[in-house]
Amino acid sequence: MRLNKVAAIAVAFAFCCAALAWLSLPITDGEPQQADEKTRLGLVTSLPIYWSESAEFGDLLQEDQAPHWVRELLEQSYDIVPIDSLAGAENMQLNEQLALLDRLALMQPRPLSPPEYVALDQWVNDGGKLLLFADPLLTEHSAFALTDRRRPQSIALISPILERWGLKQYFDEDQAEGLQQVSFMEIQIDVDQPGYFENVRNGTASCVIRADGLVAECTIGKGRALIVSDAALLDADNGTEGAKKAVKALALLAFDSN
After folding, report:
1. Domains of the chain, with CATH numbers?
2. 6: phi then psi, degrees, rounded to nearest 5
3. Could you tell me the CA-to-CA distances from 85 to 71, 81, 109, 115, 161 in Å, in that order?
4. Predicted pLDDT at 22
5. Above pLDDT 70, what percent of the chain?
6. Which stretches of the chain are DSSP H helices?
7. How far apart are CA 211 and CA 175, in angstroms?
8. pLDDT at site 207
9. In the chain, which end has fewer C-beta atoms inside a 10 angstrom radius, N or C?
10. How far from 95 is each of 67, 89, 164, CA to CA, in Å?
11. Which InterPro entries match (predicted)?
């Protein structure tokens, strides 16, 4: 009889412990909590990073196509949100997707419209973190002709936003062709005929030029931008361990450094 009382006390104690543990769980309003939820990252690019370069739309849906190495790399840390336009449908209003993000990657973007420039400037000033690759002469091979709209943007046309921030991009036509590396802090960036930046006047940003002009680090209102004057690092045929390390380091510096 004594054994039964001991067993009953043990069962009651275990039940109380379980009840206390359940009561201590956070309230989720019926929704399961997401473990290790990734940070969302907006992506605007003319390069075949999110969608593969293909002449036929059906080929884009082929499951056997390997994703671009830059997309694979970024998706290890971020939930990528592809964005078609930075501006909304009405005037200079922010795109609804962009308004919900605090991190944005512009990788050799197509030419932006005036409302998009205004929206981008507003977004960064409000605290957005921007990583921008702007190549004045893209060297990556494309299957499309120069006049084909599907071809990646050959020349980055972003001078309006650079001028507003007090920057100007230059290109040395006499420089040697071929892949080389430029050191930025401890990051080795692959470049091929890169451009370079200079501070030309008092803009709305405070920019520091580094790596012989290849990189501009800018504080813009409450936000900041890390701008690279070349995009050879993102070449689909690159994908070396060194290139992956560089892209990861630049993303970390742009988005997650204090």
Report:
1. 39-255 (3.40.50.880)
2. -65, -45
3. 19, 12, 11, 10, 16
4. 37
5. 76
6. 2-23, 57-60, 69-74, 96-99, 114-125, 159-164, 241-255
7. 16
8. 97
9. C
10. 26, 8, 21
11. ABC_transp_unknown
Q: What is the dihedral of CA 236, 239, 243, 245, to 10 degrees?
A: 130
Q: Is the pLDDT of residue 228 over 60?
A: yes
Q: What distance in Å separates the CA atoms of residue 106 and residue 128, rounded to the nearest whole number?
A: 13
Taking the C-alpha atoms of residue 218 and residue 209, their distance in angstroms, rounded to an integer, is: 9
What would the two tokens of residue 109 be? 């973007």
Helices (H), 103-227: 114-125, 159-164
Q: Which residue did the predictor score with more confidence, 142 or 3?
A: 142
Average pLDDT, the chain: 84
Dist. CA 105–CA 110, nearest whole Å = 13
Over range 24-30, report the average pLDDT: 41
Q: Which of 218, 250, 217 is nearest to 231 (CA)?
A: 250
> 27 is written with which tokens?
């309230």
Measured CA distances, 209 to 19, 30, 121, 244 (Å): 60, 50, 19, 23
Give pLDDT tens digits for 97-145: 898 999 999 999 999 999 999 999 999 999 999 999 999 999 877 666 5
How many Cα atoms within 13 Å fall on the side-chain side of residue 86? 27
